[in-house]
Design goal:
- Strands 1, 2, 3, 4, 5, 6, 7, 8 and 9 form a nine-stranded antiparallel beta sheet that branches.
- α2 packs across α4.
- With 218 residues, this protein is α+β, with helices and mostly antiparallel strands.
- 44% of the residues are buried.
Length: 218
């Protein structure tokens, strides 16, 4: 997201025997983080007050929604991070999704928007869509200071009960950017630790992209 998209729940025998249906879950307007990340900042290392690492916490919230929170630093300017996050491959949950197709500019009111049509193949095939919004909320597109990205499951299989994430991007200085990541989900076999893994996947993908490395093999 890239949210962890909870197709792992499809491995449950109960779900395999249940009746799947397609549902619409429109995203509310705006660019607001899902909630505040409660993860601490990574501990400073010798000579580096902003280590390129992610710290995470996870837990279960209201209505049995599980969450993973992350907070960390990227050794790159905020514009480089912005560019990395404009690429859908950076934000899609490659750990869970086998195939995806992108439709661009689905919500023109935002600086960047796209929708991914996702296919998960396991014992059965599941299809659903995620809608991504990304925009500058402080500064300008040419000189951003604070950026927010939000992704939510907006239609498709009811097996994917909830899948969403948000990333708040802060400029620390000319060469350092801070990320605050929130991943939320709900599914038959999805736990809080899965959300922390998803937050780390997002972070690792952004770091790889800004440094010109291949995306991690998840």
């Amino acid at each position: 997201m890239r949210a962890r998209l909870f197709a792992v729940a499809l491995l449950s025998t109960a779900l395999l025997s249940a009746c799947d249906s397609s549902e619409e879950t429109p995203a509310p307007p705006g660019l607001e983080p899902l909630e505040e990340s409660t993860a601490p900042e990574p501990t400073a290392q010798a000579g580096d007050p902003y280590p390129e690492r992610l710290s995470t916490v996870d837990g279960t919230g209201k209505d049995d929604v599980v969450f993973g929170h992350g907070r960390g630093f990227v050794h790159a300017p905020i514009l480089a991070v912005f560019e990395a996050m404009k690429n859908p491959d950076t934000l899609v949950d490659r750990r869970q999704i086998d195939e995806w197709r992108v439709t661009w500019n689905v919500e023109p009111d935002y600086d960047v928007s796209f929708r991914t049509h996702n296919i998960v193949r396991n014992f059965i095939t599941i299809e659903f869509e995620m809608t991504f919004r990304l925009g500058v909320v402080e500064g300008t597109v040419e000189a951003p200071v604070r950026i927010i990205e939000v992704a939510r499951k907006t239609s498709g299989s009811s097996y994917v009960e909830r899948a969403q994430h948000s990333i708040v991007v802060h400029q620390v200085n000319d060469t350092t950017t801070k990320l605050e990541i929130v991943v939320q989900g709900k599914g038959a076999t999805v736990g809080p630790s899965d959300m922390a893994v998803s937050a780390r996947d997002l972070f690792d993908s952004i770091v790889a992209r800004v440094h010109g490395r291949p995306l991690p093999d998840v």
